[in-house]
Design brief:
The protein is of the alpha+beta class. 37% of the residues lie in helices and 26% in strands. Strands 1, 2, 3, 4, 5, 6 and 7 form a seven-stranded antiparallel sheet that branches.
Length: 123
């Protein structure tokens, strides 16, 4: 009978301890999954860069950190769908005014949350 009383008194403490351990582990995993945000100054520098095509068209690019997309425009209008060769030897693929692929892998890195890639485009 005495053991049963001790178990009843200890059960809430065990439940609380288990909850705290689970909450601590969950917060550690969410921080380890790369939920970082893009630094504002890196985005500003990236958005000031332009790309020059081999045909002489200047492309303005703008990174949206919420959707992790890079829009592309020339002469104030979104670029048409297609592949554009860049004077630095690379190329970009545009669909719906959004750069969906580039030869150097910058877009795929940005899509995965690697914001160090903000310094790579147009270099």
């Amino acid at each position: 009978m005495r053991k049963l009383v001790l178990v009843r008194e200890a059960t809430p403490l065990i439940v609380v301890a288990a909850f705290l351990v689970a909450a601590t582990l969950a917060s550690g995993f969410s921080n380890a999954t790369g939920s970082q945000s893009a630094p504002a100054d890196a985005i500003k520098r990236f958005n000031r860069q332009t790309l020059q095509t081999v045909r002489g068209v200047t492309i303005h690019q703008v990174f949206d950190p919420v959707s992790r997309t890079v829009s592309a425009s020339a002469n104030g209008r979104p670029l048409k769908d297609g592949v554009y060769k860049i004077v630095n030897g690379g190329s970009i693929r545009v669909k719906g005014g959004i750069i969906v692929w580039d030869a150097f892998g910058v877009i795929s890195k940005l899509n995965s949350g690697d914001y160090q890639a903000l310094g790579m485009m147009g270099a």
